[in-house]
Amino acid sequence: MDQPRIAWAVTGSGHYIEECIALMLTLDNVDLYLSQAGEEVLKMYGIQINDLRNKVRIYRDKAASAPPVGLFYKGYYHTLVLAPTTSNTVAKCVLGIADSLVTNLYSQAGKCRIANIVYPCDIAPEMKTTAPGGEVMVYPRKIDLEATDKLRDFEYTTVVESVSELAHALQQRLATLTL
């Protein structure tokens, strides 16, 4: 096996997705996991899956049992990144629901004690986010903010609130691996 890799999952959130993908593309040894909604959102933002395929391996949510999650048990990944992450995915992760490729990744990474970094789209009562036409204001619901807060207490989970925090958390994680 080559050196362990980063598993990077994209859900149906457009929250600074272009910046998240740009950051992902600066890293070596990354596999991209796309939920069905993640694929749709990439298209909405003009990000071509075929262009990404030239730079990263891509796994798509096409099977009910999410077979690629077995790679966590083989030591194939050292880190899972969920960025950006919808409130729906965050809520499922908090409740232990693993019924999609991305929620299965989160569940199995936790069971394998693999560090993960999550960039939720709902992090403040009022916030700017990106839409296909530019930045917009959104007002996350109390329940979504509560789920994000609960996720902060999960083992092996780092929750970040910006792309710069995501980059910093990744730098820190990669530095610990080289020690």
Descriptive report:
This protein has 179 residues and is α/β, with parallel strands linked by helices. The chain has one domain (5-178): Rossmann fold (3-Layer(aba) Sandwich). It has seven helices and eight strands. Strand 6 and strand 7 form a beta hairpin. Helix 4 (87-95) packs across helix 6. The longest helix has 16 residues, at 163-178.
SSE map:
Blueprint lengths: L4 E6 L6 H9 L4 E5 L1 H9 L4 H5 L3 E4 L16 E9 L1 H9 L5 H11 L3 E6 L6 E5 L2 E5 L3 H10 L5 E3 L3 H16 L1
Parallel strand pairs: 1-2, 1-4, 2-3, 4-5, 5-8
Antiparallel strand pairs: 6-7
Helix pairs in contact: 4-6
Compact overview of the structure:
Helix 4 (87-95) packs across helix 6.
Which oligomeric state applies? single chain
Total beta strand runs: 8
- How many helical elements? 7
Using the alpha-carbon principal axes, give the shape.
globular
Which structural class do the helices and strands define?
alpha/beta
CATH class: Alpha Beta
- Tally the structural domains: 1
Helix content: 25-40%
Which short descriptors sum up this protein?
Rossmann fold; alpha/beta; six-stranded parallel beta sheet; two-stranded antiparallel sheet
